[in-house]
Inverse folding.
């Protein structure tokens, strides 16, 4: 048994690609080893900004001999009339290296085929590995690839070295003009010196000596430990939710050394969000907080290299931080010479999206949508006024120098400027929250107007993107379509907000018509609604919530926000015997009325005569208005209980009545009754999906 | 080390690496990439190694000579190597060591930064190089030029000379840099910065510039039709600079802006096609 080590040495890979590329490498090496019948132990991936590494433990030097069965031609075409082997059989045997006499027949689905069994001798693992090594770099894909030499081979960045060792044996391979060797390179410090590696264990040791820690988990631990050591004695800590930034920093260094820098005085005069953007996004550094969660005038950063001369590195970073913060302060000061309102007038110089007109047009559409108050249940006149004012100012900050320079601060900067100018706190928070949630882990807006502004902005964006004829498919989300869709669904469901999406989407389409940019208006409203329904289904699937509400077949979209409460009510009712009967009844109703539309009412002269069907009609007509009433005031347990009252009459009906009567008029009357029940029950949930 | 010494050292370094040292192109450009020494030479298959300083004008970045970091015109040292050598990153790092930067004392990083100039149909992938957190160089592998995938990749190394000099001389304000012993950057440039900022933000005659753009575009197109690449490209550069002033003047609306860029791009593609046609004839 030996260990197998493979290293692809590159120029600096984009940090955001590294984790995924490492996972791909591990996956492909595992597949190749298994497909080559090489017995191996644990397989682990390692990486730094400059290398992708995989280590397979306890790889057997030889594969076992094994027997293989191969399927040949049909028996009918394998022997001629004289019983001699045909060219087809002979060809097969030659290919498999067996004698025709050693073949046998197997019947596969009424037909006989020739089979051959052959023994494959054990092979040297090193040869098998050498056979798949050159394929590995081809199999790793990146979101953005490049070419750099004449073969045109594509990778994220140029490959500069290849290394593979099976125990002490050096394996040979070649890709994009690079020959493998038994050497690698350490941390970039001065003149590069090749390091000769004797074995996989030697690789880890040698690289550590050359200041490279190949295990990203270890680098992460080191950063955390060093940060702790610096911050704890001072009573400081890092902020929450630093995991993403930490992941990025881990992939920016081969050997981390943490240092604490001082922030310039100007930092205290700037909004925290601005300081955070400058440090985290532009400098990949961390803000530092005291125990009460207040920012302190320091930042924490990670050097790629040793602690020697770290004061020089710290001073350099401090002056960069100072220059950038001064720059930001300058922008804010310049921007604030005018009120936020003044920037609304400049939105006609900014394109919203290709083919979709300017930000000024978008602002007009948002104002229109904000004014459609029938869409949002129970908004107060104050909320209505705030929403309109916030919609009017929502995009203004895009025209400021600050947001042009720091795009991720959109919304935030508008809020800061308005707040500093003494604007209404409600409008300020709505402007700040309009882009929230930006990621699946971020909470939805805290204020009602913020949520509504976010929803109308996203519905407008979604409608626009689909209007360009863009066809959402695959895993890519180039225009943020999925993010917008998920944001709408999450905001409504998680806030229990009642928003009539059907009308909102209709108004959004009209808005584009009014502002004169709608390249593909065909079926747009339906396309948007279908897309949203898809996101809703996906949302409930991902949350692994029950299926009763996922189809939304009967549930109007306006009820999206009520789903969690309905689920809670259903959860409480679950387990009762009546609910089981009801589920069964709903299923039977759906089966027999398949393809028929739900009926929202029954005609007075419906041809029903048998007592069981009359009872059912009576019960249904008595229950319906009460169910509607309960739903209107969101009393879901009561609505469910009222549905449950129908369980017995439905069961009795199905037991005694033959729905598919020969008399067509009787049959259709009974079906109509059931279609009415389908409607009533469906208003609450799809009980048939209960198990 | 003053500014001119630093520039000489870098130029000499790349000359020793086999690059032809050229003088700055004698026309206004927005970046070293627009010089025909880069834009035309990265096209096609012919090898090319060059180093040159290129003053680069970005009217919208002008700050009346009052901002310590932002300039109407800054200086780039442009290195183009086609095809790139396999140790190009190490070679670049050695050029920094030559300026007295000791590798053990600093944190030098290659941080992902992909670059594109839509106006030239050019794009590349690479990094910005950080020196203790400060971006001092743009390091790019050309992938496309003139709207086409390049058949042979060129590497473009663009040093921001003011940034680098501020680092080397430990100065916080660009105007305090020493250019020559006893002569500061401010002595040479501050008044010029002020005047050019006033011109491009306040004084530029919009109507005249619009006419100039039209005339230069026409002349460039006429030369493309005559298959004279150099004059065609030089008039394209005039178009590009004229547009940059109009842009800084704040008079170009969004759709207009797209239209102007498309007009320059069409000329760029025309020049690129001619250049490639020429190379194929040789």
């Amino acid at each position: 048994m030996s260990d197998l080590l493979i290293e692809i040495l590159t120029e600096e890979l984009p940090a955001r690609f590294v984790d995924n590329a490492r996972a791909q490498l591990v996956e492909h090496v595992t597949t190749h080893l298994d497909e080559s019948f090489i017995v191996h132990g644990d397989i682990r991936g390692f990486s730094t900004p400059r290398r992708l590494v995989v280590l397979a433990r306890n790889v057997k030097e030889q594969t076992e001999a094994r027997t293989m069965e191969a399927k040949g031609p049909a028996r009918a075409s394998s022997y001629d009339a004289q019983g001699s082997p045909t060219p087809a059989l002979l060809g097969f045997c030659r290919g498999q290296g067996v004698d025709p006499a050693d073949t046998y027949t197997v019947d596969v689905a009424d037909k006989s085929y020739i089979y051959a069994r052959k023994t494959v001798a054990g092979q040297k693992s090193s040869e098998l590995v050498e056979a798949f090594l050159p394929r590995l770099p081809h199999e790793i894909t990146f979101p953005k690839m490049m070419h750099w030499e004449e073969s045109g081979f594509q990778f994220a960045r140029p490959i500069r070295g290849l290394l593979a060792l099976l125990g002490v044996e050096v394996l040979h391979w070649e890709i994009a003009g690079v020959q493998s060797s038994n050497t690698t390179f350490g941390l970039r410090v001065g003149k590069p010196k090749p390091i000769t590696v004797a074995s996989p264990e030697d690789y880890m040791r040698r690289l550590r000596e050359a200041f490279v820690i190949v295990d990203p988990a270890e680098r992460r631990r080191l950063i955390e430990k060093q940060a702790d050591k610096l911050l704890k004695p001072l009573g400081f800590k890092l902020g929450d939710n630093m995991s993403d930034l930490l992941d990025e920093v881990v992939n920016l260094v081969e050997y981390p050394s943490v240092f604490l820098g001082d922030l310039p005085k100007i930092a205290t005069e700037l909004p925290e969000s601005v300081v955070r953007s400058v440090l985290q996004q532009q400098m990949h550094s961390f803000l530092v907080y005291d125990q009460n969660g207040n920012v302190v005038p320091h930042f924490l950063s990670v050097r790629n290299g040793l602690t020697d001369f770290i004061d020089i590195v710290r001073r350099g970073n401090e002056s960069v931080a100072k220059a950038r913060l001064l720059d930001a302060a300058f922008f804010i000061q310049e921007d604030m010479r005018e009120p936020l309102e003044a920037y609304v007038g400049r939105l006609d110089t900014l394109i919203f999206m290709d083919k979709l007109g300017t930000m000024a047009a978008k602002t007009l559409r948002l104002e229109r949508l904000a004014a459609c108050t029938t869409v949002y249940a129970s908004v107060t006149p104050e909320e209505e006024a705030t929403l309109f004012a916030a919609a009017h100012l929502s995009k203004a900050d895009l025209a400021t120098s600050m947001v042009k320079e720091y795009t991720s601060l959109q919304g935030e900067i508008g809020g800061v400027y308005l707040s500093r100018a003494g604007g209404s706190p409600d409008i300020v928070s709505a402007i700040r929250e309009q882009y929230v949630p930006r990621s699946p882990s971020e909470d939805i807006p805290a204020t009602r107007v913020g949520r509504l502004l976010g929803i109308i902005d996203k519905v407008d964006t979604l409608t626009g993107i689909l209007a360009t004829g863009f066809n959402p498919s695959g895993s890519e989300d180039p225009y943020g379509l999925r993010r917008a869709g998920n944001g709408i669904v999450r905001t409504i469901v998680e806030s229990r907000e009642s928003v009539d999406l059907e009308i909102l989407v209709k108004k959004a389409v009209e808005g584009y018509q009014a502002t004169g940019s709608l390249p593909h208006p065909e079926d747009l409203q339906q396309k948007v609604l279908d897309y949203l329904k898809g996101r809703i289904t996906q949302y409930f699937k991902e949350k692994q919530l029950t299926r009763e509400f996922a189809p939304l077949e009967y549930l109007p979209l306006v009820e999206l926000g009520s789903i969690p409460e309905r689920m809670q009510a259903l959860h409480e009712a679950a387990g009762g015997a009546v609910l089981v009967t009801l589920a069964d009844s709903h299923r039977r109703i759906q089966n027999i009325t398949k393809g028929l539309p739900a009926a929202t009412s029954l005609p007075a002269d419906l041809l029903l005569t048998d007592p069981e069907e009359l009872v059912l009609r009576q019960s249904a007509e008595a229950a319906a208005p009460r169910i509607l009433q309960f739903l209107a005031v969101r009393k879901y347990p009561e609505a469910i209980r009222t549905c449950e009252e129908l369980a017995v009459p439905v069961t009795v009906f199905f037991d005694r009545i033959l729905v598919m009567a020969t008399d067509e008029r009787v049959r259709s009357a009974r079906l109509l009754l059931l279609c009415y029940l389908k409607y009533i029950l469906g208003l609450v949930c799809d009980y048939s999906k209960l198990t | 080390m003053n500014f001119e010494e630093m520039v000489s050292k870098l130029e000499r370094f790349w000359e020793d690496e086999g690059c032809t040292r050229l003088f700055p192109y004698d026309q206004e450009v927005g970046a070293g990439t627009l010089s025909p020494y880069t834009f035309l030479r990265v096209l096609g298959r012919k090898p090319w190694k060059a180093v040159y300083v290129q003053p680069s004008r970005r009217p919208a970045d002008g700050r009346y000579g009052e901002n310590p970091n932002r300039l109407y015109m800054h200086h780039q040292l442009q290195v183009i190597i086609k095809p790139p050598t396999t140790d190009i990153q190490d070679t670049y790092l050695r050029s920094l060591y030559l300026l007295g930067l000791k590798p053990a004392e600093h944190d030098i990083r290659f941080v992902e930064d992909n670059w594109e100039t839509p106006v030239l149909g050019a794009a590349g992938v690479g990094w910005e190089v950080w020196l203790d957190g400060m971006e001092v160089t743009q390091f790019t592998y050309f992938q496309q030029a003139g709207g086409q995938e390049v058949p042979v990749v060129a590497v473009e190394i663009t040093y921001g000379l003011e940034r680098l000099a501020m680092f080397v001389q430990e100065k916080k304000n660009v105007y305090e840099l020493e250019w020559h012993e006893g002569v500061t950057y401010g002595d040479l440039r501050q008044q010029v910065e002020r005047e050019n900022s006033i011109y491009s933000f306040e004084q530029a005659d919009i109507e005249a510039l619009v006419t100039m753009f039209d005339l230069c575009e026409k002349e460039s197109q006429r030369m493309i039709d005559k298959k004279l690449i150099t004059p065609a490209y030089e008039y394209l550069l005039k178009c590009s600079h004229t547009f940059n002033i109009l842009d800084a003047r704040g008079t170009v609306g969004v759709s207009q802006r797209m239209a102007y860029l498309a007009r320059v791009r069409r000329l760029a593609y025309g020049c690129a096609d001619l250049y490639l046609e020429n190379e194929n004839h040789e």
Summary: DSSP finds 25 helices and 16 strands in chain A. Residues 216-335 of chain A form one domain.
